[in-house]
Amino acid sequence: MILCFSGTGNSRYVAEFIADKLGDTVVDLNEKIKNSDHSPIAVNGKLVIATPTYAWRIPRVVTEWIEKTDITATNGVWFVMTCGGEVGNAEKFNKLLCAQKGFDYKGTAQIVMPENYIAMFDAPQIDEAKQIVANSIRDIEKAAEQIKNEKPFKTLKTSLIDKLYSGIVNDAFYPVFVKSKAFYVTDDCIGCGKCVKLCPLNNVKLVDGKPVWGNNCTHCMACICYCPKEAIEYGRKSQGKPRYHIENVFDNRN
User: Residue 64 — pLDDT band, cuts 50, 70, 90?
Assistant: First the structure.
């Protein structure tokens, strides 16, 4: 079983790729989190947790969902983390989560994919994004093969700065940066409600036909990157920046 959380599709792409190689199924954590669904899960085999990297760790919303959900009968747990650069010392916290849940930790794999966090960084142009995805295939195939053969991933090398990023910086990141008050919509909005549907935390509502953001946000960037009219902005930080989601890479029009 592959449990997958994904904002703009990178982790979903990786999860589906691995599922195809393993003949396994992908469980959509976005929907489970959105619906507060913590019903017990019996894995009956290998468990893969595919997520993006948020401030050098798996997203807090994923950690919280796993902590609250009874997950049994696993033959080891492999973490596959997509990132724009690197995952820092995320492995330490994945190990701790597994120890808390009584899971057999089998390692963490790092898969570099196109950047989507336009609240802070620049997403790549489409040609660069396509190349990054193409370059990721070898690492995804390697991860899938190791999981298939029930081999643990190689321990990731970490530096002092990695430990600081995944520790102190991650702790500060959420209260300081993960806020939704900077989101706003321009006159290009058509009120389609796609942002409402995609938000895994039910933080976006339509009011008089326009989206309004609440205070419960995880900065997955689904709302801003999937807006069909690019009508959503995040203060001045997103203005003029390309939006990225995985479907753009495979759109024949691009």
Answer: very high
Q: If we measure between CA atoms, which residue out of 216, 150, 125 comes closest to residue 178? A: 216
How far apart are alpha carbons 189 and 230 in whole angstroms? 8
- The CA angle 67-14-140, to the nearest 5 degrees, is 110
The count of domains in the chain is: 2
For the record, the structure tokens of 14 come out as: 């990786």
Task: Reply yes or no on whether the pLDDT at 251 is more than 90.
Answer: no
Q: What span, in angstroms and rounded, lies between the C-alpha atoms of 160 and 188?
A: 46
The whole-angstrom distance between residue 158's C-alpha and the CA centroid of its chain comes to 21
Asked if residues 143 and 21 have their Cβ atoms less than 8 Å apart, the reply is no
> Hey, what are 19's tokens?
């599922």
Residue 131 lies in a domain: yes
Closest CA to 84 of 120, 114, 122: 114
The range of the structural domain enclosing residue 206 comes to: 179-239
Region of 156 (left: φ > 0; alpha: ψ -120 to 50; beta: rest) is beta
